[in-house]
């Protein structure tokens, strides 16, 4: 027998209003992003275009929902953003996906170094590291960015506001104008789609 009585409503009386508030707040965040982050969006796209045009690769790192965003964004680059625009796969690697590597590195060297270790192993001058952290203070992302800055790997940060250490250390930072995690994450995946679109539409493919 179900623990929830079928006579009880499944949603509270304020459910519709909560939907409305969330959608409107997410829209407002994206409108502010358009107004405040236009330049950093363009600069980030230019860095990625230069990287791919020069046969570099994009490395992405983040935790939790941001780790999922890394996988999503890398998939758009390697596969295709829009099937109506066929083009070759573009080099992008989510540093969040190899469970054996992540757990071995965390076990041997600590969780704070998991992305730095991969950046050291896989990154080369001219590559771009995209570090995603809603707070801007995820230590493993910060350490990866710091390593890349010291080794000629361009760094792009995706954060919320105020942006924390990621904003301070990144070559370019897109700081979503919000302090609410879900609205920041919703904006981050849109930013990923925008950047992929700008990259693939700006390159020439044989």
Concise synopsis of the structure shown:
This protein has 206 residues and is an alpha/beta fold. The protein has helices spanning 15-36, 38-53, 65-78, 99-109, 114-122, 139-150, 164-169, 181-202; strands at 58-61, 92-94, 128-132, 154-159, 172-175.
Q: What do you see in this structure?
A:
This protein has a 5-stranded parallel sheet with strand order 2-1-3-4-5, sandwiched between helices. It contains 8 helices and 5 strands. It has 206 residues and is an alpha/beta fold.
- What is the H-and-E element order? HHEHEHHEHEHEH
Our Rg estimate from Cα atoms comes to 19 Å
Structural class: alpha/beta
Mean pLDDT: 95
Give the N-terminus to C-terminus distance in angstroms: 62 Å
Spatial order of strands in the largest sheet: 2-1-3-4-5
> Beta-strand level of the residues, as a percent range?
5-15%
* Number of strand elements: 5
Helix content: 40-55%
Number of helices: 8
Biggest sheet descriptor: 5 strands, parallel
User: What is the subunit arrangement here?
Assistant: single chain
Label the overall shape: globular
Unreliable segments of 5+ consecutive residues: none
């Amino acid at each position: 027998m179900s623990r929830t009585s079928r006579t009880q409503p499944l949603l509270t009386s304020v459910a519709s209003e909560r939907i409305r508030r969330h959608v409107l707040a997410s829209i407002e965040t994206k409108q502010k992003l358009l107004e405040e982050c236009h330049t950093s969006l363009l600069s980030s796209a230019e860095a990625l275009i230069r990287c791919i045009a020069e046969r570099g690769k994009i490395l992405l790192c983040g935790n939790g929902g941001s780790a999922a965003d890394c996988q999503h964004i890398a998939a758009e680059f390697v596969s295709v953003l829009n099937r109506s625009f066929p083009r070759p796969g573009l080099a992008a690697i989510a540093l969040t996906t190899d469970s054996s590597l992540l757990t071995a590195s965390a076990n041997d060297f600590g969780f704070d170094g998991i992305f730095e270790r991969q950046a050291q192993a896989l990154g080369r001058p001219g590559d771009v590291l995209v570090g995603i952290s809603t707070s801007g203070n995820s230590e493993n992302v910060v350490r990866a960015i710091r390593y890349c800055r010291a080794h000629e790997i361009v760094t792009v940060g995706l954060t919320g506001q105020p942006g924390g250490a990621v904003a301070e250390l990144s070559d370019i930072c897109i700081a979503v104008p919000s302090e609410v995690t879900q609205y920041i994450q919703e904006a981050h995946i849109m930013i990923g789609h925008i950047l992929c679109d700008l990259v693939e539409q700006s390159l020439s493919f044989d």
